[in-house]
Amino acid sequence: MGAPTMIKPKETKMRIIKRESNDTPYPIIALLVDGVTANRRLEHHMLESIGIRTEPANGTAEAIEILSTGVNFDFIFVDFDLPITSGPELMSQMRAMGVRGKMVGMLENFNNHNLQMFHQARADACITKPFTQDRLQEVIGILRRMFGM
C-alpha cells in the first residue's frame, strides 16, 4: 500500500466587480486612509466595486494634504492603526479642521477600548476589518439613512 492521497482544498478567489461611479444614482466620494498598501488596495477596490469613488491616502500627512485642497468627501474611512498618528487622533484633527464627511473607523482589533477611542474622536460608525462588500453596503446604507444622503 502506498502513501494516502491527500485531497487539496479547492481555492476560491474573491471576485470584485468594478463599476464606474456613475452606475449608481447617488455617486459617493470617499477618502480611504490606511497605512498598509495591500489593505488599502483591497479596500479601495471593494469600495469602488459598490459604486463609491475612492481617493486613497497612505497615512495622516497624505490625508491632511488631500483635505487641505478643499475637496469634500461624503465618507472618510480611517484605519485605527496608522503610522505615526492613530486613526482616532487623525479623526480628531479632521474634525478640528471642520471636515464634515461621515467618518468610519476601521478596526482589526475590535474591542471596547479601540471602539471608545473612535467614538471620542466623533466617528459616525465603525467597521471590522477585513470587511466584506455586504458589510460595507450595510454601514453605508445606515449612514445614508441617518444623514439623509
From TrEMBL:
Record has Phosphoprotein as a keyword: yes
Can you cite a GO biological process for this protein? phosphorelay signal transduction system
Gene3D superfamilies hit by this protein: 3.40.50.2300
Q: Which domain of life is it from?
A: Eukaryota
What positions are modified (4-aspartylphosphate)?
79
Keywords, sorted A to Z: Phosphoprotein
Q: Protein name, please?
A: Response regulatory domain-containing protein
Its ancestry begins with: Eukaryota, Viridiplantae, Streptophyta, Embryophyta, Tracheophyta
| Family annotation (Pfam families) | Response_reg
Q: Which residues cross the membrane?
A: none
Chain ranges of the Response regulatory domain: 29-144
